[in-house]
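Most newcomers find our protein records easier to grasp once they have seen one. Read left to right, the backbone structure tokens trace the chain's path through space. Nothing more is needed to start thinking about how sequence determines fold. An example says more than a description, so a record of this kind follows:
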Amino acid sequence: MTGAIAPEVRAAQRRIVSTINASGKLNGDGLAMWREANCGEWKATAADIGRDLDLLQVPHAIVTAFRFPLASSYSKAMREGEEVHVLRKDLPHLFPWMPSLEQTVADIPEDAPGWDFTLFQPRAEGMAIAKLALSAEWPAWSKKQARAARLVCAECDYDLREFTDESRLPYDVRLPEQPKKRRLVCGQCCNDGVDEMERLATLARASRGLRA
């Protein structure tokens, strides 16, 4: 970095460094900074963070991301927010502005989790793969928080964030009376989604028969 730095750029640097130290989450995919929807009255929004990154010439993207509901929440709905993502390959653009970040990034384990929580969705036409739009800190949530976010098996309470046992991968197996409500169960509790896939295929065939 050479030459004089404009005051607005220096101010953006101070804000970004403070935000990363306070709420930045580093993982195998890069850096994420989450902001709850409509938080502008008391803290910088995702758009504000994005404008500062633009001034620092750091590539980034803003995505929708959800956190577990607060214990005091009446509706128990997931909290919607926006998350600023800086891909791992783009993090070197931040190093001139925050030199301490370089070693921290170098120390991220190669097998560290990424941003996405991946699950399987049984469908009539076969098994699909889906990703939940969760905030990047989901691997560090407590079991209680994961339960509030419905990331544990609805049948046996197994923590579905554990991806080491291939027999307990997460499947979205919904109740027939609530077909639009996501319901995650582990592979052991749903026969790896095969039974649900066959049930949906039978319904689809019956529906086609009625229309014929």
Q: What stands out?
A: The chain has a mean pLDDT of 92. The chain has six helices and eight strands. The CA atoms of residues 142 and 148 lie 10 Å apart.
